[in-house]
Amino acid sequence: MVGALAGSQIGVLLLRRLPAPVLPWILIAFTIFVIVSQYLHVPTREGAVSLTPASCALLILVGLCAGILSGLVGVGGGSVIVPGMELAVGAGDLIARGTSLLVMIPTGIAGTVTNLRHRMVDLRVGLIVGVCAAATAPAGRLGATWVSPGVGAILFNMFLLSIIASTVVRMRKKARAQN
Description:
Layout: H1 2-17, H2 22-40, H3 53-73, H4 77-89, H5 93-117, H6 123-146, H7 149-178
């Protein structure tokens, strides 16, 4: 959590400093990286996390990366923490997903507070989406136990490909409108 909290502040700072046209490319590059990593590593159900000085350092690094990307382009939990925990410390996919959800709470609050100060939050939209996400999370947890890790990776990659496609479409529309 320490890394994620610090990282979210760094990400929010970068969000205000980087040129807007760069942000979609960061999202696309990161999403492609996640898709490729899903094919290089198939998650398993087994895998407890043993806390050692080395694993704690790796977890802080995973959290820092997740926080930066969360503050910068709005991703981090499922796409950074889950594979990061699986690859760095050998966590099983269900433990990694559950831990990711826990980490999102303080990280999201910290990033939101900073974004509120800079008037970069739509509270109404956030509350609507947040309430719907909280209401459907138990069904998602149940579904995660029914789907094998391999199928889960394929479904997640399909979702990520749709994010890339919608980002490219929005970028092209914006470019046409400016020309």
